[in-house]
Amino acid sequence: MRIFNHPQIAIILLSLALTAFSFAPSKVCGQTVMTLEKALEIAKVSSPDIKRSVLNLESNRKSLDAQHASLKSKFSLEITPFDFSRSRVFDEFFSTWNTSEDYNSFGTFSVIQPITKTDGTLSLINRLGYRDNFSEFQDVRTKTYSNNLYLQLEQPIFTYNRTRLQLKELELNLENAQINHAMQLLNLEKNVTQSFYDVYQQQNSLQIARDELENQQTSYDITKNKVEAGLSAKEELYQAELNLASSKSKLQNQQVALENAKDNFKVMIGISVFEQVSVLADVTLSPYKINLEEAIQHGLDQRMELRQREISIERSQFELIRTNAQNEFKGNISLSMGVFGDDSKFSNVYESPTNNPRVAVSFNIPLWDWGEKKARLDASRADLEVSKIDLSDQKNDIIITMRQVYRSLQNLEMQIEIARQNVENAELTYEINLERYQNGDLTSMDLNQFQIQLSDKKIALSNALINYKLELLNLKIQSLWDFETQQSILNIPLEQKN
Q: Where would one find coiled-coil regions in this protein (predicted)?
């Protein structure tokens, strides 16, 4: 009959006892039993990093919404109800000083429509005003109403479309924020999983330490009886006491390590550090059929870092366009057509209207900039090439990393089988040598070595199982492909492009 508890069996029994519970954490003896799925669910809501990522995503989304709104017609009304001025100036033609008073009251209504495709602006403007003017020179007071209604077009030529470029940049910013948010979720899953399994590992190590203490207590009792019966030397009892004390110390240290791991885990998922928790993990080996070439292709097709590199290249191209526009040859066409009317009576303003067309073409012609534009262009082209190199390096990093993870998974599968066999052998070895110790064929120091060996093999098996789970998650994150369900885990709700 074995005198110790197998930690894997204890975990399986605990799993069976809790199968009737849902994902929601269950209270057992005042303690919250936390599954990995529930821990991830809590962390996605409570994690400070995720909260910041969501706010950044919202900020970029609203900026794009604002830009789309700015491309619609703008209606504005400017009113100046009172504008009075008095001035005294010298009239050179009549060689006399003249004092004048001027009172104005006017309002301007405008509808401005940006033209996205051409980067132009079409405006409809109506200016209605009243003017009361007095001149001392001729002792004349004039009161008139006026209205100026016209349609105006401003169109840049021989230059790039700044409106469309700005809109595209904001769309890329939003896409980049969405990618960052998705990557933050994956990073959170990785960190929470590592912290979760750290707690599980410490729980498992604590159980192993309890088993070791139980075995050392049994060994101590046997030694004490043999010494009291005069069958063993007294130093054997001293050694047994030392071994027992060491096991007690190891158990206490393991308890401290477990509590520290729990605190880190609770902070990671965003719950109170005063809440009592334990974790329930499934670390059974369930190898999945993984095709390395397919995994690499999934990564190259879906990895969000590659899209970020492409976005960086597009931004570098935008910067190159802006740099090329410095000291550029460009022009502007301004067209307007409208009618102007004025009269002392408001109702007669348009009795004899005046057409007031306007056409203007202007050019900006740079002559010499001492090589400034060329130098800036060279710098922008260099930045663009760096972005392209970064994209190529990122692809190579993805391929190499997934090859390494794949090899690691294959190695861990073999290491787990070896570790299981080692545990079985260490258990049998300890039982045989315990019997030898009971028969007086082995010292307590030798038996302690077999106990340490057994504990080490159990911990090695637990570590190998956890490392396999973590490496499987790593491959999932690297390839963005769930090999358990055979489907993509990429889920970024990109905005509809306009």
A: 160-264, 402-429
